[in-house]
Amino acid sequence: MSDPPVLSVEDLTVTIGTRRGPARAVAGVDWSVRAGETLALVGESGSGKSMSVLAATGLAPRAARVAGRVHLLGTELTALSPDRRRRMRGRHVGFVFQDPMTSLNPVLTVGRQIGEAAEEHLGLTRRAARDRAVELLDLVGIPSAAGRVDAYPHQLSGGMRQRVVIAMALVCEPDLLIADEPTTALDVTTQAQIVELVADLQRRLGTAVVWITHDLGVVAGTADAVAVMYGGRIVEQGPVDAVFARPAHPYTVALLAARPEPGAGGGDLATIPGSPPSPLDLPAGCAFWPRCPVRGDARCAHELPPLVPVSVDHHARTFYRPPREDA
């Protein structure tokens, strides 16, 4: 029997109140991630991937109404008080966000910022927390960690600041690491270093990772499973190799076609015409229908397609019902 998920989300729905009415940011989402596994959430901006994770971990905006079931290490987070949820999240979940400068306090040394979490959640003394900070800075590959522990964020490069944020996320040795577009603001070489760092730390610590990204190259190189989101729903999910080899939803096909290929020359990249739908005005059927290059089934415009099996653990939300690989 496989180990239970570190984090599981069932029928998660997030509705945000706005002056123009309710906006459905996430609708009926299910996913899970196990220890040592990386799940990639993929989609364009506004697809609901980040909001689903924020809502699952209790960090959704105050105006959001969250429904569904979320279990962290077997405990239903939605049943906990805000204070107990905060403590459980702080002890068991680490976050790495897109821009390290928004995660770091410019007037505190990096060692102090790492140490604060160790004092709060592990009960360490200030001296022990400083030692822990040096240990973590060394773990994430910052040279001369004992000297860098007293540096301020502005004294470090972008890549080093992101390593500091990763060290902060790992201070409590979390069971789950959530990486939300952590390499977008970095140059290509530093991006590759950060991706490899997270993968190496995962191998050494056995941490579950949820990687939120629009970069399919990162997904191909790091993830075990992928969930493709559009209009607040998952439109395709399964093992990375299966989804990349045999994409079944037209949106997944379009995303893969728009991916730059090494050695392909300087020609124009494929694009997806149109724009993602507004969560204030989602179509009744498939949200991708107005942009879909296929549009062969009129039901797509007014009826929500079901998730149908493509192969083992590989499903797509479509009426086209591709023949099963294992049929």
Automatic annotation (TrEMBL):
Pfam family, one: oligo_HPY
Bilayer topology term: Peripheral membrane protein
Residue ranges of coiled coil: none
Primary location class: membrane
Domain of life: Bacteria
Biological process annotations from GO: peptide transport
Domain ABC transporter: 7-256
Keywords: ATP-binding, Cell membrane, Membrane, Nucleotide-binding, Transport
Compartments reported by the entry: Cell membrane
MF annotations from Gene Ontology: ATP binding; ATP hydrolysis activity
GO cellular component terms listed in the entry, alphabetical order: plasma membrane
Family: Belongs to the ABC transporter superfamily.
Protein name as annotated: ABC transporter ATP-binding protein
